[in-house]
Amino acid sequence: MSAVGRLGLFVDRQTLGNSEQLTALIRFRDSAEGMGHTVYFIFPVEIAKIGKVDGLFIRSRTDPMNISFVAAKMAELRGIPVIDDPASIQICSDKVNMYLHLMQEGVRIPETVFVRKGEITEKAARDLFSELGTPLILKEPSTSFSLRVEKVNTVPEFLTTAKRFIKMSDWIVAQRFIESDFDWRVGVLDGEPLYACQYIIPQETFKIQATVNGHIVYCAVKGVPLDHVPAPILDTAVMAARAIGRGLYGVDIKDSDGTPYVIEVNDNPSLEGGEDEHSPGLYGRIINHLLGEGETPAGSDPAR
């Protein structure tokens, strides 16, 4: 079978060093090749090869300060379809920016206040506890993998955590705490649901990943067929994703007594933890989004 497209997978050594991510990448490559496409792994030192592929799927950590953003920008400037696109990376890497996009489109999120450096005072803390309840969730806007997300119960805890976070950003995010045993994660591609799962929150913590007594604890992942997901969850996920863009997003949602609240929208969502358990066509849909269907490309081989 002749290749109908050239797909670049932008990766780094950290990605390939994780056995689950490597397995997912191999499955993705096999799916693309089974559809007749040619797949190239592109490392940061080979970034110039991006101009020779027809679609680019970034599978390294995305951040405006990382080379993955340069890769996304190179693809965009050349008119090459890319996941994740630069705008999505910029929005999702800054939680203040992300929440502002969600608010603008009327997406339901936990009650949220953006706090500046000059507002980190005992009075402001008491006012926030009065307004948002106890405990509060504090987030440093550039955080990922729940690293700088903390639950605070007292004014001294608020001041200690807020002063630490504000050293890294001009703002911090304060939110009402919504308790749940799991978070919904809905994958959305081009404004349509792609997959769904539940992230079962470890009993030792309130978030999907945390360091407890010196050890990292992770959530369990339970795949859920899309037709088993409550309609309000799916509708909210699609609305949130469309508020960011038309790429691939992982939308995290908490269900509070039947009311869905978007916790965040993630670009570069993980696909290696069992998210695709009930979505066998997941890889194919991503590939078709990047390469289209059936068009035969012309040009040089990026491996040369």
| Radius of gyration, taken over Cα atoms and rounded to an integer in Å | 20 Å
Biggest sheet overview: 5 strands, antiparallel
Total E-strand runs: 15
- Unreliable stretches, pLDDT < 50, 5 or more residues? 294-301
Question: Main sheet: which strands, in order across?
Answer: 13-10-9-14-15
Enter the CATH topology name of the largest domain: D-amino Acid Aminotransferase, Chain A, domain 1
How far from one another are the termini?
A: 21 Å
Oligomer: single chain
Strand fraction: 25-35%
Mean pLDDT across every amino acid position: 89
- Report the helical percentage: 25-40%
Order of helices and strands: EHHEEHEHHEHEEHEEEEEEHEEH
Question: Would you summarize the structure shown here?
Answer:
The protein is an alpha+beta fold and 304 residues long. Helix content is 31%, strand content 27%.
Outline the fold blueprint.
Blueprint: E1 6-10, H1 13-16, H2 19-34, E2 38-42, E3 55-58, H3 67-77, E4 82-83, H4 86-92, H5 95-104, E5 112-116, H6 122-132, E6 136-139, E7 149-152, H7 155-165, E8 171-176, E9 182-189, E10 192-200, E11 209-212, E12 215-218, E13 220-223, H8 231-244, E14 248-256, E15 259-267, H9 282-291
Characteristic key phrases:
3 domains; 304 residues; 15 strands; five-stranded antiparallel sheet; Rossmann fold; globular; alpha+beta; Dna Ligase, domain 1; D-amino Acid Aminotransferase, Chain A, domain 1; four-stranded parallel sheet
